Amino acid sequence: MAIQILAIESSCDDTSAAVIRDGVVLSNCVASQEAHRQYGGVVPEVASRAHQIHMVPVVDQALRQAGVKRKELSAIAFTRGPGLMGSLIVGVSFAKAMALALDIPLIEVHHMRAHILAHFAEDPKPVFPFLCLTVSGGHTELVVVRDFFDMTVIGKTIDDAAGEAFDKTGKLLGLDYPAGPHIDRLAKKGNPIFEFPEPKIDDLDFSFSGLKTSILYFLRKQLKGNPAFITENLHDLAASVQGRIVSILLNKLQTAVDKTGITRVALAGGVSANSELRNRLEEMGREKGWETFIPRFEFCTDNAAMIGVTAHYKYLRGDFSNQEVAPKARLNFGV
Q1: Could you list the residue range(s) of the whole structural domain that residue 217 is in?
Q2: I need a labelling partner for 296 at 20 to 30 A (CA). Which of 18, 41, 270, 305 fits?
Q3: Are residues 278 and 303 in the same domain?
């Protein structure tokens, strides 16, 4: 009998539902929230209220697209954390209620583990072990992946994440939130002519706070002499900022490959949608003989398909949750 899982993702500001059959994605529906643009970032209370509005329509859409009835579901999966507490509560509560009503198992999923296992949503799938650079708005991590549930974080940010660096820099440049896609688009028409420092952080950890500060001071200095500096140099500034963030990520990745000896390399998380990061990783792979794996765009940003794929492998080993399970805004990687 087929294993059919309804997955729900509500960790931040996207409400998503997907249906997975025997590990294959049948549908992956996402409702984004536009209300946060006016605030320049995600407002937790606004996000949680929007999830309440979007949840039922998105779940219905996912089931319809998959051609699966509620009574045919084998389990309900959900993001337990990490994420915004109010947003997580909406998804967890809905999943628990639906699983209870249908009398089927409940499966909790770690959001960052799911980003990594998004690579198993479609071919080509990486062979274990592999090294995964996971980059998002809230996380920047280097992870050794030995199995579906045997993962070790060997490097992480000590302050801001890469996605935060894009968004906070974008705000300095007067760009709308989220700034990452805008910087990516603008950078295509510019050249990285402005030099920004690469943080000197020991070992495999990352830091982006100092980069953000150096950009701030650079812009202040230039604007004193030319109030139109940002407008006149926007494309080159975007290219310079993006180039430095990408080089920080890839230089650490190179160090991780050298230290671990693992040459199967994967990219995951929302920032992995960045075109320069994707292109330069592929180029590095060709030059150095690495096997590189980059998900399609729809599996990079927050989505329920990655939750469902992870849940499929948890289902196979009978790893279910009980009705007492609660969301956790900060969740250790061991879930």
Answers
A1: 128-295
A2: 41
A3: no
